[in-house]
């Protein structure tokens, strides 16, 4: 039985469009000189949209491994763009939230993206 992928299905097209949008986002962020990588920009944007959010939930929301997100957050925290605090309902968990300093970077990210 020959294997054939139908590239005209809705699912395939949506996935392909998402890939192209991400590729363009990465290019724009990389060229903008914001001081953050495309991955860090995605993490910052997701954290801003989610509000104070558990680090594990943020990784899940972004579709990345917890260790990948942790590296992004380490660098964003070093720049003063996010803070991690102990979750008052579970001292083992960390809540991530953006800082006031992130507003300028987030505004620039929004300008760059359609």
Which descriptors would you attach to this protein?
114 residues; alpha+beta; three-stranded antiparallel beta sheet; 3 strands; 15% strand
Uncertain segments are none
Helix content: 55-70%
CA-based gyration radius: 17 Å
What is the H-and-E element order? HHEHHEEH
By DSSP, the count of extended strands is 3
Shape: globular
**What is the residue-mean pLDDT, rounded to a whole number?**
93
Record the strand order, biggest sheet: 1-3-2
Strand content: 5-15%
Structural class: alpha+beta
> What is the rounded distance between the termini?
43 Å
Number of helices: 5
**Sheet of most strands:** 3 strands, antiparallel
Description:
By secondary structure, the protein is α+β, with helices and mostly antiparallel strands. The chain has five helices and three strands, in the order ααβααββα. The chain has helices at residues 10-32, 38-50, 55-62, 66-78, 102-112; strands at 53-54, 82-87, 90-98. It has a three-stranded antiparallel β-sheet with strand order 1-3-2. A hairpin with a 2-residue loop joins β2 and β3. The radius of gyration is 17 Å and the shape is globular. It starts with 9 loop residues before the first helix and ends with a helix. 20% of the residues are buried. The mean pLDDT is 93.
